[in-house]
Specification:
The protein is about 45% helix and about 10% strand. It is α+β, with helices and mostly antiparallel strands. A hairpin with a 5-residue loop joins strand 7 and strand 8 (about 240-245). The structure holds adenosine-5'-diphosphate, 2-acetamido-2-deoxy-1-O-phosphono-alpha-D-glucopyranose and magnesium ion (MG).
Length: about 375
């Protein structure tokens, strides 16, 4: 008979076997589920004493079907950042950039006997901080780290990185996907989402129009991270930003994507899925401090067109990600991991409440950005 305990033991045995396929020194001692990401299955593998262990991930192939290209990007990006860090006195490349641990036969990923794809990174000791900054200093550090990330990849040699998710943050694509899900409405959920559907329709034109105009005016393409959630930064024990992780979506993008996604994730006074939309508000202290860290690091790099669109970017990305949660709800919850019925609808509602608050406070946000960009205190 298979009991939960025997299943656990079988799973652990299987995971330990997979971990042993990577060129990590020493035998794996224990494996546990780890982290709070929405995309992959992540495990922490503990090694024998003195071995930092590793992070083992089963890659979500529905979202990233071309694993060799995905891993090629990650290897290129991490090696480039490692070289850049090696030139900085006092830096610790093993902790400040992810290290891909190859398989025993030297590959970037392993395919198991069920056809699942696995990869492994060196485990970086860090302090768990949760989904949002707890202090102004952490918000500033998050800004600094995402700014430094952009700086370090500004001279990544050609060829361009692969586009791992086509048109990932393209608002036109996201609106088209939303319209398809709304028309199909496979689970008859449209009525439950009527208020959110109306909210997004009211904003579609402004979002698309402003973005199209910025592109026509020469908004630059850069190497961007594209998934700049607060929990995609690891912090050290003293609360200093250490390492940017979750590099699956590093590819050509606009700086607006990174800035906007970071603000909607870090400068939210509530959890991303708070069931009470009244609580989703822009946290101005976090906004100010993130901006100070980000703009301080990127001094001289951003063009005036980029700077002038930063506050719009915070609204744009809150809209785009809210729309993706809403689309996934209508579609039957196939993309984001959900933990309860209606979870994606709650997430969409919370993002839209945050967006409405940003709309109310846009003028204040603009003042903060323009003062910082002009080198003035806020
Ligand atoms: P997802 O795409 O599912 O969000 P991530 O790559 O962000 O997956 O990893 C999930 C979690 O695992 C992270 O939020 C972090 O807590 C932890 N993690 C990932 N890589 C490392 C690492 N190299 N060292 C320590 N913890 C890590
Ligand atoms: C996913 O992987 P994770 O949990 O950091 C998603 C992001 C969303 C985010 C919402 C590849 O991020 O785009 O903004 O959830 N990543 C992907 O929490 O779709
Ligand atoms: Mg993540």
């Amino acid at each position: 008979m298979t009991t939960p305990n025997s299943k656990n033991a079988a799973d652990k045995h299987r995971l330990t076997g997979i971990a042993a396929g990577f060129a990590n020194s020493g035998a794996p001692v224990d494996v546990q589920i780890y982290g709070a990401g929405h995309i992959h299955e992540t495990f922490r593998v503990q090694g024998e004493k003195g071995n930092p262990g590793c992070i083992l991930q089963r890659i979500n192939r529905r979202i990233f079907p071309d694993v060799p290209r995905l891993m090629e990007n990650i290897v290129r990006v991490t090696e480039h950042m490692r070289q850049r860090l090696a030139a900085v006195t006092g830096s610790e490349p093993d902790r400040e950039v992810l290290t891909v641990i190859p398989t025993r036969s030297g590959k970037s990923h392993l395919i198991d006997d069920e056809g699942e794809c696995w990869r492994c990174f060196r485990f970086i000791e860090h302090r768990e901080l949760g989904a949002r900054p707890g202090t102004p200093g952490q918000a500033r550090e998050a800004g600094r780290l995402y700014g430094r990330f952009l700086n370090m990849l500004a001279d990544l040699p050609a060829p361009p990185l692969h586009e791992t998710i086509p048109r990932f943050h393209d608002v036109e694509r996201r609106l088209a996907d939303f319209q398809l899900a709304l028309a199909a409405d496979p689970l008859r959920r449209r009525a439950a989402a009527a208020a959110e559907v109306a909210f997004s329709s009211e904003r579609a034109e402004e979002m698309q129009g402003t973005m199209a105009e910025a592109r026509t005016s020469g908004l630059p393409w850069r190497v961007t991270h594209n998934d700049t959630k607060f929990n995609n930064i690891l912090f050290d024990a003293r609360g200093r930003g250490l390492c940017v992780i979750d590099l699956d979506t590093v590819m050509p993008g606009h700086v607006l994507y990174d800035f906007g996604d970071a603000i909607r994730s870090a400068a939210n006074s509530a959890r991303e899925d708070d069931p009470d939309p009244q609580r989703s508000r822009i946290d101005m202290a976090v906004f100010r401090n993130f901006c100070a860290g980000y703009l301080g690091e990127l001094e001289g790099r951003l063009t005036p067109l980029e700077t002038v669109h930063l506050v719009f970017a915070a609204r744009l990305m809150t809209f785009v990600i809210g729309l993706r949660f809403l689309t996934d709800y209508l579609d039957g919850d196939h993309y984001f991991k959900v933990r309860r019925p209606g979870h994606n609808l709650q997430r969409a509602r919370a993002q839209f409440a945050l967006l409405a608050d940003m709309e109310r406070r846009s003028a204040e946000m603009e003042t903060i950005v323009s003062r910082l960009a002009a080198g003035k205190p806020v």
